Amino acid sequence: MECILCGLATPTPPIKANDHAFCCIGCREVYLHFGSEILAGEADDLAQSAVSAETGLEVFLRVDGMHCSSCELLIERTALKVDGIQAVSSNYATSTVKIVYDPAVISEADVVDLLNMTGYRARLRSDNVAEYDERPSLLRLVVGVGLAGLVMMLYVAFFYPMHLGLVDIKDFQPIGWLAFRAVPSAILVSTSILIFYVGAPIFRGAWIGLKTGVLNMDNLLVIAIVAAYGYSFGQYLDGSLDLYFDVAAVIVAVVTVGRDLEQSARARATRELVRILEVWTPTARIIKKDGLGTSPVGELRPGDHVLISEGESVPLDGTVVKGLAAVDESLLTGESVPVERGPDDEVPGGAVLVEGSLEVEVGSAADSRADMLARILWNIQSSSAGIQGFADQIARFFVPAVITLSVFVSGWLLFRGHSVEAVLLAGLTTLIVSCPCTFGLAVPLATAVGLSAALRRGIIITSTDTFEKAPQADIVALDKTGILSTGEMRVVEVIGLPLVACYAAAVERLSLHPIAIAIARLESGYSASDLSIQPGKGAMATVDDKRVAVGSQSLFTWLGWEIPQKLATMTSQAASRQGIVSYVGWNGHVEGAVITEDDSRPEWKGVIDRLRLHGRLVLITGAEHASGYEDQMDEVHTGVPPEAKAAVIRGLKSEGSVVMVGDSSNDAPALAAADLGIAFGSPSALAADAADVVILGQRLDRLADVFTLIGTTRRRVRQNLAWALIYNATAIPLAVTGLLNPLFAALAMSASSLLVVWNSTRPMSGAEMHASFETAQTKYRTWSRLHTA
After folding, report:
1. Class of domain 283-367
2. Residue 310: CB atoms within 10 Å
């Protein structure tokens, strides 16, 4: 029979409840807690973390020439018309594209050629990801800022005093050739260079928008720039000083500065990820026909044989060919006690050999940790936040609406008998003040800064969508092993004479087994020699002229040494507390035992107190006992097999939004099922792929930082969008009613954009972090009152 909850085989006789069969007590208790509704969920939660439902291969490309969201649309529309391409995701801010294709229909090289034919220059990603080349944009930035500054200085010196009535035009008669010819000509030349060189990316983006049939922000920018430049050029030819070259210059300069800041922020985030990728690119010893060689893990192929010694990690999933070893598989199983592995046994990538050595044949799915991180890196770069789509939709509606409004205002004034000059100025002012630069900068700049701030804290946000979809958590669910506990063992009790601890410590100092390391910390004035290790069972050595054995019951059964009944009874009580029993004996007799347990993280209680402010706390563990953690939890589920953890999350989601924190592959279904999945520590590839956030290292306090960082970034994005909407709602009516001229419209537009840039790029202050903490605290107090009631 199969378990009704997780599908695993049931024991004989099966564990039953309400006429349903279960594989274990954990599954039965989960069913009894949540009721029959939990059975309605399908065990397909991992699909939620997949980039797409297609079964094709992924290819990540770096594409030069992308300048706006219309580039994304053009690439996606063009690529999806080709047979064999199943899905396309692109991001103009990072100039990256991800394509899912069917290798039976189209090759990887054809995919690259396809994008090159659209006018872009595409290239495949390499192991060493090329950093963003800042030289072209830096040159444009320097030229743009320099020429715009020159134009503005000339205006301040000659034209603004006249426009404001501070100086009469007659006062310039002594230097008429300078004020009326040389200065306007210099402004014309400078503005022309600004528009046609510095502003070239803006014009390209506008052309792409027309080509795709979707008007974008660049179209509106180009209309405003060309209108200001064209009007001023006509006035220049007529000898008039009513020139608005400054408007065109300011628009180009501000947009160039804003986009450079945006790209620099994204590039910093990319560099952080590349640095992590380089650190996590291991090598493996591969067995070849001509001997033993070294190869990067990323170059291993199915069928290769690798040699793994004590203390090394298994690079990829595979099958043991030769050898016997004790293997720490905590990344896969979530349990810290090593298991014995020998010929024909499967070993997971990421497992660590604590005793012995193995020859392993690489399995058919040759995935490595480096590949996993590379996918995360490129998924971040080729993704675009959901709220960014909202901003783009506003811009796409906004552009034709503003153009229509400008034409309407100009037509209405012309109908009312105003001069052609007044009509043109009114239309121009409406276009300038409505330039949606703030919409273009609001989302990508804030999210780029958020990504970079997270990376500096060892936190990887696996998708920019996380900033928007991350919930205000109602429930925080945590795994036990590797999260609240370190996965390392500590001695909690010694049973027997003082020599038991002394002899055991002497023997275990010669072993790298996690339990041995814990026992070796005990005080001992003895030394051991002639070590003999039985992988997965224990060790023997000579201490004080005695042959001392330290290990599990299976070691002493193999030795034929009988364990006294009284000692067995005493140790059974320790085992019921989730302790690990290591018997100690010498000269054929078992004299005592050492009890070890998984060590708790010293900071776990403080972190729990902070997490409690964000939601109700639930412990989900495969262990049969909560090991004392239950006192700090609102709800506990023990003995839950990996296949049933996702069912628990589904049950919890019926009560509110759920955040799941795990570290191993057995947590992957639960991470994918949660509203927000957080993989902690040194997560397995499956756990990292399923999670929305990956926390590297062993600092548990980073869990609380995740909530603060996501909340702060999301708040800044919404502040930017709110300001953009408020600005346009205020400025456009002023322009339509004639209360703004083109100069003040350009200054208002510039100030609005610079405010968004400042708000996005400013460091995350202590006050802001404290505000997030206060918000969480208020929420927790509200929940506590409701819960108590």
Report:
1. mainly beta
2. 18
In the predicted model, what is the mean pLDDT of residues 754-761?
78
Task: Residue count of the chain, please give it.
Answer: 789
- Of the pLDDT bands very low, low, confident and very high (cuts 50, 70, 90), residue 783 is very low
pTM: 0.60
Task: Exactly one of 479, 598, 667, 705 is catalytic; name it.
Answer: 479
Task: Tell me if residue 408 falls in helix, strand or coil.
Answer: helix
Percent over 70 (pLDDT), the chain? 75
Band of pLDDT at residue 42, cut at 50, 70 and 90: very low
Residues 6+ apart with CB under 8 A from 511: 355, 517, 520, 531, 533, 539
Q: Cα separation of 572 and 555, whole Å?
A: 17
Q: For the segment 76-90, what is each residue's pLDDT rounded down to a tens digit?
A: 777 888 888 888 877
CB contact set of 714 (below 8 Å; sequence gap of 6+): 467, 468, 470
Contact 749, 437 (CB under 8 A): yes
Average pLDDT over residues 539-554: 91
Cross-strand pairs, 589:
586
Q: What is the CATH number of domain 49-124?
A: 3.30.70.100
Place 191 in a pLDDT band, splitting at 50, 70 and 90. Answer: very high
Give CA–CA dist 645/639, Å, rounded: 10
Return d(Cα 511, Cα 517) in angstroms, integer: 7
Residue ranges of domains in the chain: 49-124, 135-273+376-439+716-767, 283-367
Using DSSP, state whether 495 is helix, strand or coil. strand
Residue 598 among the catalytic residues: no
pLDDT at residue number 767: 43
Q: Does residue 471 have a cis peptide bond before it, meaning omega lies within 30 degrees of 0?
A: no
b/e map 749-787, b = 16+ CB within 10 Å? bbebbbbbbebbbeebeeebeeebbebbeebbeebeeee
Taking only Cα atoms into account, the Rg of the chain, rounded to an integer number of angstroms, comes to 34
Query: Which residue do the tokens 């072209």 mark?
Result: 136
